[in-house]
Amino acid sequence: METVASFYETPEPARFTGIWSWLLTLDHKRIGLMYLFAILFWFLLAVLLGGVLRLELMFPGETILSPGLYNSAFTLHGVIMIFLFIIPALPAIFGNFFLPIHIGADDVYFPKLNLLSWYLYMAGGGIAIFSLFSDGFADTGWTFYVPFSISTNTNVSTTVFAAFVLGFSSMLTGLNFITTVHKMRDRAMGWLQIPLFTWSLYATAWVQLLATPIIAITLVLVMIERFFNVGLFDPARGGDPILYQHLFWMYSHPAVYIMILPGMGVISEIIPVFARKSIFGYKAIVGSSLAIAIAGSLVWAHHMYTSGMSDTAVFVFSLLTYVVAIPSAIKVFSWVATLYKGAIEMTPPLFFSLCFIYLFSVGGLTGLVLGAAGANIHVHDTHFVVAHFHFTMFGGTGFAFFAALHYWWPKMFGRMYDFKKAYIAAILVTGGFMFHYVPMFILGLQGMPRRYYDYLPQYANGNFFAGFGALFMILGIGLMVANLLVSLSRPRNAGPDPWGGVTLEWTIPSPPPVHNFVRPPEIMAYPYDFSGVTDRSAQRPKGE
Amino acid sequence: MPGQRDQTGKKLGMWLFLFTEIILFGALFVLYAVYFSWYPKDFILGAKELDLGFGVINTVILLISSFLVAASITAVQNDQRHIALAALAGAQVCGAVFLVNKYFEWGHKIEIGIYPGSERLLDGPAPQNLFFGLYYVVTGLHGIHIGIGMVLLAVSLVLVFCRRITAENDVVLDNCGLYWHLVDLIWIFIFPLFYLVV
């Protein structure tokens, strides 16, 4: 392949140089990288906060955090992880960088809107920080349930406003992606020739677009209540606090699919490449992405079985919750079937993907325990819930994020990282993860509630082990990020296609040139045709 | 590689954005629906307190403004720049009159002691507090949207004046018009729900 200047050397628009060529860039790849570093910062911060929380819980009684501070700390951990990490991580970083390339386009449809989304993201983060230093961060948990969120003295309004701004950023990204997929797709690429990561982003974008306004208005209502005391959710004045919960989860349950769908897309990209085998059930995976997006929007009240609902409602929501499990399981089966009889080549991205499949399956199956109305009453609001959603969100989306980092890092930076350290980090994170969250399942079944800074003596062992696991996990994450960052000082020798991938991003130089394609892309009849791919492991730079 | 951007994508983006606006108000209508089904009598009593005259006048004003915006788009497409400018200015005036009416309507309500947290609402029957709470929140949010719409129409007006919006390139005006129609449409739902439920 001929050598061309990468997007690092070619600012877009060309009149800006230095720092302005980044801050005012309209290039989707630069915006993706700016998201990458901002999101990594927030992620690491929230990981450390989580570590502090578990350190407090390692021993009974008050050790390092006061009860009030503990409440603020878990709220901050939740708000950062949800709104500043998991929701934007895959779409905003990898979606921005690779969605246009996947469909043979030179950018997203609205590049300026894309930059605006980044600024809204940064502003949301800034407002969250600001609220830390004025009257204290909210202590409501990331759910901001009324009436507490209206009556507490901490700075809920500012925190809520931060989430509102971040919601706008996410919504505009979704709007941009839908328009891009419809209008910028290469003319030769039909709907069933789109790579699965882009398909999953497309399904996600619809959820982002249609669900986010609900949280926006709900958060606005919390602010209005705090400023004007209208009493729309105040039972003493005719209102119903449970309606708030409905409105909140009408967004926030679809939001968990905003978080997981792109992760599933990443895994669907990685597995076939390293199995050297066409993905099993391409159409089934596309269909299940859409099915998850639709059915996932109809299950919100399964968070509220104990809040007060009619038995009919509980039955319907429980049933719908089970329905969502079907498309998720279809994906898991498709990935496993892809591996079956494949020519598997182990690499760090595949290793993370395999961990994903395992951890996500555990998370998904325990979700059914929670979705069953009867079992839910027993474990509602216990550590079982905490373990479940960390298995899906961290074991799922988090690991998909790690896998995506390791898969696309050579494409984004043109440099290969050290495999050995990546494996050690992956084993540390996964091992620590199991040590960390499995005890929480047991604690939850024994009845330990979530969101308490202290506990009864019988829960001491489990909490001690969990804290221990957290330490390994944090070490592993640190090693992983350090290993990736160290690779940046190496020469750009990754080559255009170090893995043997066949989607369009592997046909262009690494890092890509500013307009992505040097010559018009050749669209394959089927996006996962590996018949022309040979073994890459011999000529791949080892990153040593 | 050249991009394949065309004007239709900008319209698609605008329609997607309008969906989000509908859902934003949709959540408030959900609140209204639930509370109305619980307390229909109190909502009817509340609606009787509202001034139907203001509501009717504002509805007519918004309908006229929507016509003017639509007319301005047709005028631009037919290269009748002056008519387009006049129509946009007219729509602007309609928006302003709407807000002034709203100001007097709210002012009157506040004068007779109906506003969030007022003694009359705190001591009166609880459901009426909900009705007027929703009234202020919904019409307030709608008023803000009228304000945003007026800014968009003002921008379009300037662009038509500078000949940046022309028959060949009218997508900005088209999109601003779509936004204005949506804001009107939402009022068409607000009006019967609050003024005509009696």
Question: Would you mind describing this structure in some detail?
Answer:
The complex is a heterodimer of chains A (544) and B (198). Chain A is an all-alpha fold. Chain A is 65% helix and 0% strand. Chain A has helices at 20-23, 28-58, 67-102, 111-133, 148-151, 156-183, 196-228, 241-275, 282-295, 311-339, 348-371, 373-379, 383-413, 419-446, 460-486. The two termini of chain A are 24 Å apart. The model of chain A has no long low-confidence stretch (mean pLDDT 92). In chain B, α3 packs antiparallel against α4 (81-111). Chain B has helices at 7-38, 40-49, 52-77, 81-111, 119-123, 126-161, 171-195. The model of chain B has no long low-confidence stretch (mean pLDDT 92). Chain B has one domain (9-195): Four Helix Bundle (Hemerythrin (Met), subunit A). With 198 residues, chain B is mainly alpha-helical. Chain B is elongated and about 60 Å long.
Q: What is the number of E strands of chain A?
A: 0
Alpha carbon gap, first and last residue of chain A: 24 Å
In CATH, the homologous superfamily of chain B goes by the name Cytochrome c oxidase, subunit III, four-helix bundle
Would you tell me the structural class of the helices and strands of chain B? mainly alpha
Number of helices, where a helix is a run of at least 4 consecutive DSSP H or I residues of chain B: 7
Rg of chain A (CA only): 23 Å
Main β sheet profile of chain B: none
Beta content of chain A comes to under 5%
> Greatest chain-chain interface?
A-B, 44 and 41 residues
- The CATH topology of chain B turns out to be Four Helix Bundle (Hemerythrin (Met), subunit A)
Q: Oligomerization state of this entry?
A: heterodimer
H and E string of chain B: HHHHHHH
Strand tally of chain B, please? Answer: 0
Count of helices of chain A? 15
Helix percent of chain B reads over 70%
Order of helices and strands of chain A: HHHHHHHHHHHHHHH
Query: What is the percent of helical residues of chain A?
Result: 55-70%
